[in-house]
Amino acid sequence: MNDKINVAIVFGGQSAEHKVSLQSAFNLIEVIDRSKYHPFLLGIDRAGVWFLYPDFYAVANRRQPVPRATKNGVREVALVRKNGCVQVLDLDTFDGLGQVDVIMPVLHGPSGEDGCLQGLAQMLGVPCVGSGVLSSAVCMDKDICKRLLQHGGIEVADYLVLDRDHNVGFDKLVRKLGSPLYVKPANMGSSIGVSKVASPEALAAALAMAFRYDSKVLVERAVQGREIECAVIGNDYPRVSKPGEVVVKYDYYSYTAKYLDSQGAELKVPADLDDLTTKMIQELAADVYTLLGCQGMARIDMFLTEADEVIVNEVNTVPGFTHISMFPKLWQAGGMNGRELLDHLILSAVDNYCSREAMTVRLAGCQ
Ligand SMILES: Nc1ncnc2c1ncn2[C@@H]1O[C@H](COP(=O)(O)OP(=O)(O)O)[C@@H](O)[C@H]1O
Ligand SMILES: [Mg+2]
């Protein structure tokens, strides 16, 4: 009898962060405890088609996009509700290839981190690691996220939102926000589409690039400060890691600094901070997590200025799990290895699902 928990690790996807997702999935597949869990490796290609990969296929191809071809045992599949449970359905034979007990989203960016996959999980009625629909969507959109943080009295960098039809000149932006400026798509990650600009020409090029990824673009005041990140796990009583620091060798923490140049940034885990500052940052990270309704896991990214002011930059509800990622490193430093971390995440997802289910049953009983 198979008494293992079946975990669908979903990776790839249609966002520009497809390749980063493969790197994250590779690490999770390596650490997942196979005595407890049976992983289904579900890769979504760039066109949005879902495939089930036999073990470690994805690993061998982790630097390539998810391939379309159904060969070497790769099946084109869908997740459906059938016979009272969620099944991986073979789309050629319509056979059920196995039951899914938990979804582990390893999709970064739109369509994976933004509530879409979380909504699918909710419709299917299966626990999903991480935040739910609303919190995922809110944290994905840097404009909405900042508005909520500001409303909760949490400091963020001043910014303006531009859409394609609403162009504001360089001089006006500099008068409002200073120079240099950061330009970024509202819904993206991994620094894709992000630019630092200090001239009208650079602004025009930066806007053109950012609008390739989103119809809403933020122009932000540049914050001078150290880049500090905290990992948070859990549901109603979140647990916050010690802060880590990203010391960037480039002008800012660009895609190149993150993923292309292995010397592009140094992660200091934990960050060299005094106890008081550490505590202040951890409390702020917990407040942000709770305020935004995060569940399961998130990485809260902040700037620490010379005046010891903490400014929240962004919240990642599906943080990177690559071998260089801060989220697993922070827990590792706190005494929790990748395998134990995954245990926590899966348990939190089941817990969260069960308390929601209990509420649904109670509500149904009221009618
Ligand atoms: N307002 C800002 N001030 C200073 N640096 C910034 C600012 N916004 C972004 N950056 C730099 O750009 C990087 C990527 O921007 P971020 O908003 O975190 O986007 P992403 O979601 O793609 O990671 C940050 O890690 C930081 O180095
Ligand atoms: Mg970032």
Could you please describe the fold and organization of this structure?
This protein is of the alpha+beta class and 367 residues long. The chain has 3 domains: 5-128, Rossmann fold; 138-155 and 224-346, ATP-grasp fold, B domain (D-amino Acid Aminotransferase, Chain A, domain 1, 2-Layer Sandwich), CATH 3.30.470.20; 159-221, Dna Ligase, domain 1, CATH 3.30.1490. It has 11 helices and 17 strands. The chain has a 7-stranded mixed β-sheet, with helices on both faces. The protein starts with a strand and ends with a helix. The relative contact order is 0.13. Magnesium ion is lined by residues 301, 314. Magnesium ion binds at residues 301, 314.
Count the domains: 3
Number of strands: 17
User: What CATH architecture of the largest domain would you give?
Assistant: 2-Layer Sandwich
Range of helix content: 25-40%
Describe the main β-sheet briefly.
7 strands, mixed
What Rg do the Cα atoms give? 21 Å
Walk across the major sheet and give the strand order.
6-5-4-3-2-1-7
User: Which structural class do you get from the secondary structure elements?
Assistant: alpha+beta
Shape: globular
Query: Mind telling me the CATH superfamily name of the largest domain?
Result: ATP-grasp fold, B domain
Bound molecules: adenosine-5'-diphosphate, magnesium ion
CATH fold descriptor of the largest domain: D-amino Acid Aminotransferase, Chain A, domain 1
Mean of pLDDT: 92
Strand percentage lies at 25-35%
Uncertain stretches: none
Mind telling me the CATH class of the largest domain? Alpha Beta
**Succession of helices and strands:** EHEEHEEEEHHHEHEEHEEEEHEHEEHH
- Count of helix runs: 11
Give the terminus-to-terminus CA distance: 39 Å
